[in-house]
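Fold sample X.
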Amino acid sequence: MRLSTLAMDGRRLVAVRSGDELIDLSLAAPRLPDDLAAIIAGGGEAREAVEAVLRSPPRQAVLPSGRAQWLPVLPHPGKILCVGLNYRDHSAESGFQQPAYPALFARFASSLVGHGAAILRPRQSEQLDYEGEIAAVIGRGGRHISRAAALDHVAGYALFNDASIRDYQTKSPQWTVGKNFDGTGAFGPEFVTADELPPGAAGLRLRTRLNGTVVQDASTDDMVFGVAELVAILSEAMTLEPGDVIVTGTPAGVGLARKPPLWMRPGDVVEVEADGIGLLRNPVAEDGARLAADAA
């Protein structure tokens, strides 16, 4: 099952994919919440309602092609928990020793953009870097979750581009500022339920392309801490809730590690793709605040 959050005619809606068509759940199943996180939290009952739509999609609920705008698949997650240095080759290229405990940092919803929306290069820096990743979405909350039970708490997966402002990332020992500029966290296009993928999204090929050239190419089997382990470790400290997002890390090939560095620039197009999940595509543009300041 593949679900997405869209905007059309001034309203937000959740859609489910049926072949090449998107079905507006607000029309096809009006008793469902109009929020994907709430549908995920609805568990089996909500899933059965969506499956009923897929068995007999009403024609009046089919979205007109090209009319809707893709929003972040979860526009306002309660938590966005990101994992740094989770691929050994990326730790090596970044000059860090591989950590024995996940390098964790937070993103905030204000940084998110959807599929097709522009990733923004801010006025303060030209060091805008790509990081193709897979995000796991919590479906059943809990604390002190065992590794053996952890994947039962994962509802599904989506793609993420953890675009980073590198000079701001390294202004202090904490990475938070460099990871939270507005318009830098691309998330989508679709939430893919866990049953459509291997357990823990294992064995998937993850690729990032910049202007059509492959710049990152790895298997999720190369992650140091797999999805189940991340869920268990995070739940040692905090209660995970339905709709929380765990962004699982990026492989080698980032622009910072290249000689010379390869930064994303306005006019570029960046794509993140993974087997079974789909393709997240975003142009790169100047932040409007930068344009306004330059014109002043």
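Fold sample Y, listed below.
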Amino acid sequence: MLQQRTIKTLTRAVGMGLHSGQRVELTLRPAAPDTGIRFRRVDLPEPVDIPISAESVVDTRMASTIGAGSAKVHTVEHLMSACAGLGIDNLYIDITAEEVPILDGSSASFVFLLQSAGIELQSVAKKFIRVIRPVEVREGQGADLKWARLEPYHGFKLRFEIDFAHPAVDSTGQSVEFDLGQDNYARDIARARTFGFTKDVEMLRANGLALGGGLDNAIVMDDYKVLNADGLRYDDEFAKHKILDAMGDLYLIGKPLLAAYSAHRSGHAMNNQLLRALLAQQEAWELVSFGSERQAPRGFAQLARAW
């Protein structure tokens, strides 16, 4: 039987919200089988649980935000991406503010936290959402066209194309493919940082965003070049960060997908539209488990490799 996973012991991190600039404490705790991943706002007078689901996403401007009633948690995608990359099914995430800490702008610190806590196998079958018919969402036309698609695949792979008319981005790979069964998430994707442009910072901050952003937690570019003294971590770090984001956005469906995801200029909003379109077409997917590891796609049976 391919088993569900949680962590062995609790682990903590302290950081700053990328957009809010607020100090925030994060505690990751083991959870029982079939709990799923649940964020808990422990700073409120009465703590509020927010279970992840495609429908729990309430805002997709600049990040993925989940909510329950008036309680919200912003910028969940990097932590969710780490959970997807390591195959974590059940987890409590206690948080003391309304935004997940940005840490270094990638998911590498979350991978380290989860692996440091240890991965524990649970005595219940892991459940997958298997895509059995293609589903696609599209927006715009010509140069403004954006699209995202899920197709049947015995495993999980992602292909993303970006399109930024900027010298620093043009000189890197603008298309990346990652296959969970063949590649190493921690090594190949997790260290890719979020990125932004100095020309946008003033506008963002005027709107109360990017208040905690800087060269220590993002790739920052002026009109011509990358401003970070240490340069890029990957030759194609921009496109790889979009893969990282997409993995986190897609894992908000609540279970690992068996599918091939491909996208052109997609973002948080379109990724969530894609999940909702999939769930709305009941003939396009099914819930499955695997009685033995040999039946499961590559990349899901093995415990995640360390760095």
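Sample Y note: The mean pLDDT is 92.
Also: Residues 3-125 form a domain with the Ribosomal Protein S5; domain 2 fold (CATH 3.30.230.20).
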